[in-house]
Amino acid sequence: MTLTVQPHRESVGLKTGQLYLDGQWGPGTGGDSWTHRHPATGEEIGEFAIATEADVDAAVASARVAFESGAWSNSRASTRVAVLHRYADLLREHAEELRSLQALDNSVPLSFSSTIYATSVGAAADVFDHHAGWVDKLGGETLTPYQGGDHLAMTFREPIGVVAAILPWNAPFLLFAQKVAPALAAGCTIVLKPSEYCTFTVLRMVELLVEAGLPAGTLNVVTGPGDPVGEALITHPGVDKVSFTGSRAVGKHIVEASAGTLKRVSLELGGKSPALVFADAPNVALAAATVVGAVTMGLSGQACVANTRALVHRDVYDEFLGAAQGMAQAMTYGDPFDPGVMASPLINAKQLERVLGYIEKGKAEGARLVTGGERLGGDLANGNFVGPTIFADVDNHATIAQEEIFGPVLAVVPFTDEDEAVRLANDTEYGLGAGLFTADVQRAFRVSRKLRAGTIGINGFQIEPHLPFGGFKQSGLGREGGKSSIEAYTELKSVYLQLTDEMM
User: Fold this and answer.
1) Cβ neighbours, 10 Å, residue 469
2) Can you tell me the distance from the alpha carbon of 176 to that of 83, in angstroms, rounded to the nearest whole number?
3) pTM score, two decimals?
4) Predicted local confidence at residue 197, as pLDDT
């Protein structure tokens, strides 16, 4: 039987995707559209407008006028707080609808998005609630005069201006929130570009934000592929800051393209995150299940921070591999609306071929294939499904241990002692995340301080709104979440005031 998601499409009632410019929905000026095919079935799911350069100009102009008018940036703190909290409430109220839209967009199973916090609608709502709490705390400081005298030294934090927020397709709830919430809390205006592979979810999230009371022009949406839409945004002279999550290659291009106007840039660019499993891990089988689950379940390894390298102590190596293989073989695939389905297909045919190419590379370079390694057929033949794949005895310099595959492929590397584990973990150009499993609390903190990565999980991992998230090395610039995130959407101004007799 051929898998189909058409009945689900009809029940949700997708509409043709449109642009949102200056408070109005419309088709844009070009008339071109993008047809999106469902990753699990190859069916045409819907169309959305491809913005032209003129549409991008209009979006940026709208955001600039809204910013300069102060309708949002100079509004009362209580007004902004109320809108952000109201939006968080609306997200929770529409959680089931939004999860269904995501399943139609990118095929992430409902079983995953309803149970795993970091990919849930609830996580996005929490991010907006958290940043609402920062709105009235973005003040500056009054400093003691350095050399004394009758003057005042002060600092102020002011919104950075117009922000271009460019989203990936894999986690629209959380990544929409991590970019939009701090920008709005700081008083910025936004031009948002969702991924062409996950547009309908984002458009509905925007509709709910408008319903929450966001003034016209504060948020504008342009849809379409990175070329030409994203390119027009990152090079636009009216944009003050670019916030992007995606590939390292595109991130580097954004840095180069933004140099002409010295735009502020925040980048989260992926990783090759290691999980270090020590011999004293509290539960080796659970550690294996956690690592394999992150690489195969839900997004099928299409997650920037997934621990796609497992560095395992030789004393528990065989135990880890046995448990990992069992977890991988337990994965289920199919209709993302089926509660028994645990993992998604790859997002498109291009990514499917890319991942299969990496698997062949792993075999050619001498790694031992433990399980998987093939495209799934039968009822799944029309989708972009690759089975959970585990390679053992991987050389840490091998291609599959160094390059971000963005698929359900785990490279397992043995180590002998703590120093070797740390050396192997840090031997990569990336530095987004890392995990370690140990019952020794001193080792846990000692190794955490030695790992060159932005987020460390010890015997577990969770993204939370108040914790900064971002990478070392080539995993990006800046942080999302916490105080450091919201400050990244502000400029710091220093004011020197010489007091005169008339002021005294």
Assistant:
1) 25
2) 16
3) 0.95
4) 95
